[in-house]
Design a protein that fits this description.
This protein has helices at 2-5, 44-62, 65-69, 86-92, 101-128, 140-160, 185-202, 224-237, 241-253, 272-276, 285-291, 308-312, 345-348, 357-362, 399-412, 416-429, 443-458, 465-471, 475-491, 532-537, and strands at residues 78-80, 209-213, 216-219, 292-296, 341-343, 363-368, 371-376, 394-398, 496-497, 512-513. It is mainly alpha-helical. The protein has a two-stranded antiparallel ribbon with strand order 1-5.
Length: 547
């Protein structure tokens, strides 16, 4: 396969910028050397450095606009709103095809993650069996590698369906299997469950560390809670609700929110805003560790930054009415940001804007002729000094997902009371009224809708929406509903929408003009196209129907 030709035969070694035994740390990549093909790593320290390289591959996958494009922007939550990039516009409008490079890029990056992990698993097995090598961390490094590989394959199989299943490392592009066929999705999921079960058995509740000497400690990033959540996601796809509950129940039982969570392993931070405000990552550390279970960290100071900020931030601080935002409201100065992505009006209008604190923090309205738009604050680096050197952490797993998956599973198992209790923990933090079962006439159906809407609001612009819609079989119908609403707004004239629910701010008391674009869902959009260049390089690859 072409993606395997692109994988470097030697992987970079990285070292942490400081010794730390906590999970609140940041990896600063320091490329020391390449590992020769015939030796790769030969010590435990080289193995953990290679694991850091796998972290970096994950970060490369999720940072920037590409991953958002093939997930969030292909839903009713986000749109690419300018015309300067044909590929971005086509994907956002669901007019994509197999030849667009963005699909190829994400596919290759995910398989780069897979191959990094394959090499790591292979070599750590050899190291552990070598009596001449001092190796004290047991299965810990391999467990993290298997978790990361499972994460990559879970993304691949949900986006593309049947995909090549590679579990052996690629060392030699001439001798190794470079033209694998697509494996059935069931086989891919079987590997995902196998990897996650291995990780679950070998990881501890909190992220561990590898101690090389008394003065050298390498902190790791993944604890058992992250494994539980990823297992629950996979089981939820298969509607195995009892298994979802089995893995999440211990997390629910050992959790507490805000200050009440002291001494607990898991919980919600007191403020949803504080989870994402880059200026506050060193505050409320214990609360943060209870909610954020796996994250890719960015830094504006050392060129390891998430370029997503520059894609969503406006290039001016002008409010919709012509006034300027203060530095307190939008601290980051404007320089080279593009404001190219914006939430859809369809999403915005589903919030309870009077009460929902997530909405009140998340969206700021700005004017950029000829339309007005909302700036999503997730991904906006409030502490940056320049837009093109800004970047927020990319949170991949957090406890709120455990709560809402647990609520969904319990409801499907006809046990609504604990479902509502878990749902209300998320709602109450957001400032919403708790759901009362007595107010529901068709409990299971109405509660199902409430949970799905809560997921939409809680995880807005975190790349959850497409996976939720696809696993519930509602992707096409929801996108068709989006189109009908778009047509209704268009018939009213140039997307003029009166929004009295915003009046609580005193900002939006009149009609404003909203620039929006249509989307064109087709029945075959339940899967992404296999990248064209992959099918050219590997004749064993078949294409998904419709493309």
């Amino acid at each position: 396969m072409k993606f395997l030709y692109r994988i470097l035969i030697a992987s970079a070694l990285v070292t942490p910028c400081f010794v730390c035994t906590s999970c609140e740390w940041f990896l600063e990549e320091d490329v020391e050397s390449s590992i020769p093909q015939n030796t790769y790593f030969r010590t435990e320290e080289e193995a953990v450095k290679f694991l850091y390289g796998a972290y970096a591959s994950v970060r490369s996958t999720v940072f920037g606009p590409d991953f958002f494009l093939v997930t969030d922007c292909m839903t009713d939550d986000m749109e690419y709103r300018v015309s300067t990039n044909y590929t971005y516009k086509a994907i956002s409008a669901l007019q994509h095809n197999k030849q667009l490079n963005t699909f190829y890029t994400v596919w290759n990056k995910l398989y780069k993650v897979v191959n990094d992990c394959n090499i790591l698993i292979d070599r750590t097995n050899l190291l552990r069996s070598d009596e001449k090598v001092t190796y004290n961390s047991g299965n810990l490094i391999e467990a993290e590698a298997r978790f990361i590989r499972a994460w990559a394959y879970l993304n691949l199989v949900q986006l593309w369906g049947d995909v090549p299943l590679q579990t052996l490392p690629t060392y030699n592009i001439k001798e190794d299997n470079l033209v694998p066929e697509r494996a059935p999705a069931a086989s891919v999921y079987a590997q995902i469950f196998s990897d996650l079960n291995f990780a679950y058995e070998n990881l501890t509740d909190k992220p561990g560390s590898v101690i090389i000497r008394t003065d050298i400690t390498y902190p790791l990033t993944i604890g058992k809670g992250a494994v539980r959540v990823l297992l629950a996601r996979a089981y939820l796809i298969h509607k195995q609700y009892s298994d979802v509950v089995e893995y999440l129940q211990p997390m629910i039982d050992n959790s507490g929110d805000g200050a009440d969570g002291a001494g607990k392993l898991y919980g919600l931070m007191a403020s949803h805003e504080d989870v994402f405000d880059q200026r506050k990552v060193t505050e409320n550390i214990e609360e943060r560790k209870r909610e954020i279970l796996w994250t890719m960290e960015a830094s504006k100071d050392n060129a390891i930054y998430n370029s997503w900020h520059a894609q969503i931030a406006t290039n001016q601080k002008r409010n919709y009415n012509g006034t300027s935002y203060t530095d307190e409201e939008l601290p980051c100065p404007t320089t080279s940001a593009t404001g190219a992505f914006a939430p859809t009006e369809d999403l915005i209008l589903t919030y309870d804007a009077q009460k929902d604190k997530r909405y009140q923090w998340q969206y700021k309205m700005y004017s950029q002729a000829p339309y007005s738009y909302f700036l999503p604050m997730k991904g906006y680096d409030m502490g940056a000094t320049v837009n093109n050197q800004a970047g927020c952490n990319q949170i991949l797993i957090r406890f709120a997902d455990a709560l809402l998956m647990y609520a969904e599973a319990k409801n499907e198992l006809d046990d609504p009371s604990p479902a509502v209790e878990a749902l209300n923990r998320v709602r109450v933090r957001a400032g919403l009224d708790p759901v009362d079962l007595a107010d529901l006439s068709d409990v299971k159906s109405e509660l199902r809708d409430l949970i799905m809407m809560e997921r939409r609001h809680e995880f807005a612009h975190e790349c959850y929406r497409i996976f939720d819609l696809r696993r519930t079989g509602t992707y096409i119908s929801e996108m068709e509903r989006f189109n009908r609403k778009f047509s209704e707004l268009k018939d009213k004239g140039v997307f003029k929408v009166f929004v009295p629910q915003y009046a609580y701010r005193g900002d939006f008391t009149d009609v404003y003009v909203w620039g929006s674009s249509n989307k064109y869902p087709q029945s075959y959009h339940v899967l992404h196209p296999i990248p064209y260049l992959e099918t050219v390089a590997n004749k064993n690859l078949t294409q998904n129907p419709g493309y």
